[in-house]
Write a structure and sequence with these properties.
Blueprint lengths: L4 E5 L11 H15 L3 E7 L2 H6 L4 E6 L9 E8 L2 E7 L1 H4 L17 H14 L13 E5 H4 L2 H8 L3 E6 L7 E2 L3 H4 L13 E2 L2 E3 H8 L2 E4 L2 H6 L3 H4 L3 H6 L4 E3 L30 H11 L8 E9 L6 H4 L2 H5 L3 E9 L1 H13 L4 E5 L3 H10 L2 E4 L9 H7 L4 E4 L2 H6 L5 H5 L6 E3 L4 H14 L3 H13 L5 H21 L1
Parallel strand pairs: 1-2, 1-6, 2-5, 6-7, 7-11, 11-12, 13-14, 13-16, 14-15, 16-17, 17-18
Antiparallel strand pairs: 3-4, 4-5, 8-10, 9-10
This protein binds adenosine-5'-diphosphate and alpha-D-glucopyranose.
Alpha-D-glucopyranose (GLC) binds next to helix 1.
Length: about 500
């Protein structure tokens, strides 16, 4: 099969810039495509963290101002483990340290439409005949609203095929009409079947309208976003474009997330050596100021604290939790009222509930390993990576039946125990009572050591690597390229 030239465009990439799962995907998927023998390059803004990581980056091109509102910039080239990176350098737009989307007060950065308009514009340029470097992409693969305008430029100006991946349809990148001109887009793009969305310019909607192919990060979410409840106003467009839409389940980086080698753990273990997991539990209890005991069930949470993740349910069952033989370790950051709610919860139950506010990659690994059960009662979850990390760490999760959670977690029942697929606990409702019942069920199940071991092993033995997904993306790219050729 012929080699593809793929431009992968992203606004975050682990380990340098990460606010959530997109950062992990942007590190692992391009690496898997590269490993499969394709010529993939990653385009990302040259944030301070990348400047620090790649001081040797070389100048690849000077980029003139391409639209009235877009400043001139530079493309720098660097490499990570053989994978080429294109760093979009424009200090006036990307020079601030910290969160890539929010300012120090937690508000969206004012110039986001320009910051990500430029990222999209340059992405498109690299798929066009007048690419500024000695390379042109056959397919430009953009991710979420931050790069979703690239397919729009490719549509109106010509160029390669495009794929947009929706990691979360709730974030649409909506800005004023005036950006149409400043981003250099034609006035006739302002249509309900163009870039306009309820009187605003929506980057995501525009990308979904014009991309050659669309993907999202799990098969269930691909169905859900065609439904009003999950589609945030875009369900009719998703239904309209159904034949161009695929659901491809994310993988996880099985080297970084490997309990038998993870450098953050005090004790390494594997599916056939699960007794060694226990030391991680006592170490975590000690680290987080919980009472050190093995007979209580330790629940873990690692999450952005937002409505999406459904963790407010835990705050409404405080007394119920107090009555269970359990502990809770939470690592998270996000909305102020949820942060305050969890801090108060920890104060109310010292030794039983511990909360660490903030983003802490190393502690995330220790919670995955040290907890007995992982909680992820999301209201919606396009894919979710944490439930896969916890399955791999022998920490069966409690999840809601939505998106990628529904595609990865198999509820424990007689039937699924018999056919060796049972690997966690699935909630049908998002009521506090359902949450409590599931936690109670886990506390009751764990003492049955043989059955619990089987549930852990079923999760640990499933293949969550990127191999299958990389293969599916390659077919999607080929499909997009053929479709684009037919359009010409
Ligand atoms: P989302 O992208 O919606 O936040 P995912 O489950 O796909 O959800 O990915 C979340 C990623 O971010 C995981 O790698 C998870 O470990 C990490 N993460 C989330 N919150 C924190 C935190 N407070 N500290 C460390 N890692 C976190
Ligand atoms: C988004 C989604 C999450 C998904 C991640 C990576 O942040 O909320 O479910 O796993 O993107 O695709």
């Amino acid at each position: 099969m012929s080699q593809l030239s793929i431009l992968f465009v992203t606004s975050e990439m682990a380990p340098w810039v990460k606010t959530g799962g997109l950062g992990d995907v942007s590190a692992a998927l391009p690496a898997a495509l590269h490993k499969a023998g394709h010529d993939v390059r990653v385009l990302i803004p040259n944030y301070p963290a990348l400047q620090a990581a790649f001081p040797q980056a070389r100048l690849a091109a000077q980029l003139p101002a391409l639209a009235p509102g877009l400043p001139p910039a530079r493309l720098l080239s660097a490499e990570t483990a053989g994978l080429p990176l294109l760093l979009l350098d424009c200090p006036e737009l990307y020079g601030n340290a910290g969160n890539p989307y929010l300012d120090d007060h937690g508000h969206d950065r004012q110039d986001n439409p320009i910051r990500f308009g430029l990222l999209s514009r340059i992405a498109a340029l690299l798929g066009q005949a007048h690419s500024p470097i000695d390379w042109q992409a056959n397919v430009v693969h953009v991710n979420d609203w931050q790069s979703a305008m690239a397919p729009v430029y490719l549509h109106f100006e010509g160029g390669s095929a495009s794929v947009v991946t929706v990691h979360n349809i709730a974030f649409m990148g909506c800005f004023g009409h005036e950006y149409l001109a400043s981003l250099g887009l034609p006035q006739h793009a302002w249509r309900f079947d163009g870039v306009e969305f309820h009187g605003q310019l929506s980057f995501l909607k525009a990308g979904l309208q014009f991309a050659t192919r669309i993907s999202t990060v799990s098969p269930t979410y691909a169905r859900e976003i065609q439904d009003e409840h999950f589609g945030y106003g875009l369900a009719p467009l998703m239904r309209h474009r159904e034949s161009a839409l695929r659901g491809i389940l994310n993988g996880i980086d099985t080297e970084i997330w490997n309990p038998s080698t993870d450098p953050e753990l005090v004790s390494h273990y594997a599916a056939n050596r699960l007794a060694a997991k226990r030391k991680n539990k006592s170490a975590l209890q000690e680290e987080m100021g919980l009472e050190v005991a093995d007979d209580v069930t330790l629940f873990g949470v690692i999450s952005r604290l937002t409505h999406q993740k459904g963790l407010d349910l835990l705050l409404t069952i405080q007394d119920g939790m107090a009555a269970l033989p359990m502990q809770l370790a939470v690592l998270g950051s996000g909305e102020r009222d949820l942060e305050a709610g969890f801090s108060a919860l920890a104060k109310r139950y010292p030794g039983k509930i511990a909360v660490k506010l903030g983003f802490d990659e190393a502690l995330a690994h220790r919670i995955e390993a040290g907890a007995d059960c992982f909680l992820m009662p999301s209201r919606f979850e396009p894919c979710g990576l944490n439930q896969m990390y916890s399955l791999r760490y022998g920490t069966p999760p409690i999840v809601r039946a939505t998106g990628g959670l529904a595609d990865t977690v198999v509820d424990v029942s007689e039937e699924t125990l018999a056919n060796m697929t049972a690997n966690g606990f699935v909630l049908r409702d998002d009521t506090p009572h359902a949450m409590w019942l599931a936690m109670e069920r886990v506390c009751r199940s764990r003492p049955d050591k043989r059955q619990w071991l089987r549930i852990q092993q079923n999760g640990m033995r499933r293949d969550f690597s990127w191999k299958q997904a990389a293969h599916d993306y390659i077919s999607l790219y080929r499909d997009a390229i053929s479709a684009r050729e037919l359009e010409r």
